[in-house]
Fold:
Amino acid sequence: MFQPQREPLSPEMHIFDRAIALKPQPDGIWQGHTSTDYANMIGPFGGMTAATALQALLIQPERLGDPVALTVNFAGPVRDGAFEVRVRMMRSSRTTQHWSVEIVQGDDCVINAIAVFALRRPTWSETEIVMPEVAPADTLPLVGNMMGVSWPQCYDMRFARGGLRGVDGTGDNPDSLTQLWINDKPPRALDFASLTAICDAFFPRLFSRRAQMVPIGTISLNIHFHADAATLAQQGSAPVLGVAQGQIYNLGFSDQVAQVWSAQGQLLATSQQAVWFKE
Structure:
């Protein structure tokens, strides 16, 4: 079974960058390793896995432009330890590229993903959806470790609305709408990899809606990016506003739709999830 020893990484690296670090191999495969900092109930935080898949494309020398869309399918649980990342360019034109990514442990493909990159050009621009008005981040309390796992401690989270009913004991919610300010802890400048992880940093909608917790897992995550690298660089390490809500819970599956906004009101990304749950 594939289990290489992890080489020590620089202690000066941010914990996020250590977690998504990949080492190239002669055969074109990349080696990575899960991070205990971003541990979840079973395996690593899914947003970190998605960010790792995107990172494998961001570091490709043939990569064209910035990511426009990323779809990550969680084919199986990612086990703690080493993994391989296999990347393939499926098609490239003058302005767009289509890529596929697989994350493999042993003989198991645990993650398969596709992504579209493109060269963005100035055009007419308009945003129909409106950023909600919420209290400023610095006026809201910092959330403690509500889930009993490591990964939430890697974020500064401040809820303006919504929470975990199964943890705070206040009964069911009439809806699952959550609005929270979030950024990396310790602070780190926003980029496409960290934005990808933040798109999955909302607690499961079922846990926001109900006062009980059941087995749950994301099976597919889709992210659309609405900003270029220069726009993300302007954001720096300031918190972004995340808004998430479930639309339906039925026959063992549910969904989630989400937006991530800059503090200045620019829509940076939108995402959708399909989620499995068991009762």
Q: What stands out?
A: The longest strand covers residues 82-92.
